[in-house]
Fold this protein.
Amino acid sequence: MAAPPIRKLPPNFLWGFATASFQIEGSTDADGRGKSIWDDFSRTPGKVADGRNGDDATNSYKLWREDVALLTKYGVKTYRFSLSWSRIIPLGGRNDPINPKGIEFYSNLIDALLANGIVPFVTLYHWDLPQALHDRYGGWLNKDEIVQDFTRYARVCFEAFGDRVKYWLTVNEPWCVSILGYGRGVFAPGRSSDRNRSSEGDSSTEPWIVGHNVILSHAHAVKAYREEFKTKQGGQIGITLNGDWQMPYDDSPENVAAAQHALDVAIGWYADPVYLGHYPPYLHQMLGARLPTFSDAEWKVVKGSSDFYGMNTYTTNLCRAGGDDEFQGFVDYTFTRPDGTQLGTQAHCAWLQDYAPGFRSLLNYLYKRYRMPIYVTENGFAVKNESSLPRDLAIKDTDRVNYYRGVTASLLSAINDDGVDVRCYLAWSLLDNFEWADGYVTRFGVTYVDYATQERIPKESSAFVVKWFKERTQPAVPDLKLLSKSSS
Ligand code: PNW
């Protein structure tokens, strides 16, 4: 009997791989780059698990042509990367000078991608705040300053690259920026009430202030794009949020409620303001006067400030009511089911297990609640102990292949069986790279990086992902909207 025909992805579906500036570029003081908050933080003993920093990373500031060649060989439709704010404006502020070398670096990268038929998908902010803004006025803690400085930085980027870049992300994962940077203190700038971690910070107020200011900064950058650039440049712009599927531990009403509370704090904190125009009621209840408020004029800028839902997701948590962690909405997370079995295969990081059905559930939840086209901008897996294997074993990354086999099946079901409007899927990551506080020991790449030589070696997962998407890609259909814009 003949095999059933392969079900396809929608026409013009974008797929590819993602990275971020600080995780791959290295060359932290080349060509006039200013310091970012991750420079000193990662150099401070005790902050990064393996004691290493971002000075070399995968050396992509020098080896970017190799990265483009790799993407071309893989045959991706799109590549997501981020711009280093402090390469472009070394001191970061609205009156500080622009660094032409920084502009030139990204301009060359964008041109090379386009020359190879790869759509650039650009993040403005993936956590590397210029250190000067943190020193000058407290960075994300200072609403009036940061909104203006971020908007000016965004304008500089639209001006320099917007003729060629049609997909923009303002901020990557504001939950991580706020909670991990200003609550738990495990990410730069490392502020926390936990005095074992930090000598500065107030975890009961700062994360919520930072989150609030990130939302407003994002929204003003979008307003600038829409008012000053969109008509001419015709691109899409939005924010991207991390958020894992939250599943009740069992059927008890308190655990069913807990799963929703976990979603409200992890996702709704950002998505409800941006797409619905209010903070989740649970956040008001939990924080009271500690939750900052927007004026009516600010809500007008915030509500509707994203052209799509940018979704980063990695795992599923089983949720139980209780616990004392406000950053999880007073919900306990576990991977152990009531019967003692594990939800899925354990990754190298404690917070990640492979559970593909959660990916489909999350897509359905987000589409029902926010009614936006969804761009999956990150999804991936770190194989346990991968970095202690010799490289010819490390590239046989069966756990990662299984992970991608599961989520791609879930993706196709969500689109074709459930009717969810998903337009893009980006796997994290193109390369093994600097995994923040985990250093280089945790590897998320579909391409192995031998850090001694910076050699890039495709893992089996890259072959799986590439083949899967190529087999399900339909012939492109011209985008009439873009065509009529560029010909007018
Ligand atoms: C994301 N968590 O970070 C980031 O966008 C990437 O830069 C990063 O490399 C990737 O996911 C893998 O970690 C996260 O603690 C960091 O749940 C931490 C968490 C989730 C995402």
Q: What stands out?
A: The first helix runs from residue 21 to 24. The pocket of 4-nitrophenyl beta-D-glucopyranoside is lined by residues 20, 23, 172-173, 176, 242, 312, 351, 378, 428, 435, 444 (CB under 6 Å).
